[in-house]
Amino acid sequence: MELGFAGRRVLVTGAGKGIGRGTVQALHAAGARVVAVSRTQGDLDSLVREPFLEVTKEAFDRSVEVNLRAAIQVSQIVARGLIARGVPGAIVNVSSQGSKRAVTNHSVYCSTKGALDMLTKVMALELGPHKIRVNAVNPTVVMTPMGQAAWSDPHKAKTMLDRIPLGKFAEVEHVVDAILFLLSDRSGMTTGSTMPVEGGFWAC
Fold this sequence. Notes:
Blueprint: E1 9-13, H1 18-29, E2 33-37, H2 44-48, H3 57-85, E3 89-94, H4 107-127, E4 132-139, H5 145-150, H6 154-161, H7 172-183, E5 194-197
Parallel strand pairs: 1-2, 3-4, 4-5
Helix pairs in contact: 1-7, 3-4
């Protein structure tokens, strides 16, 4: 299916690895002109997966910085540029299945991803008059290097897989395909939405 990216300029953040890198590669293949920004996040994985009673100020502040504040700052730059040029556009935030379903030891992570979903809706409301669509993708565990490391323990993985009807975690291309669809004109009447890429996790 032709998604119409030939010659378009696309900004991708977090492009150094995982979903960001996969998105850059797919957009290049589709003929887009990609501006890629890689942002070092440090050992975020160890900060966000803490029992509620052990959550630290450092974990909370870092999660807000990466999962929420960064999305606001980058989206403001993109939206202002589109408005200044008088052209339509699309923004896709990368949220999580944890934005709507509780996951043990992920209180801060789930909270900030829930906030990102609501930010997505407010952005869609405010930017819609400027012909800018804003949506989010909400993946399950994705088999990036970080995902593989965090969920390599079979017992830990089983607790999550038992909640996913398809019985498997997502591959990077599953999320990239959803992002490309939401960026493309094929989703021209879709804004303010959250698209699950979670194998049915929300259905259970």
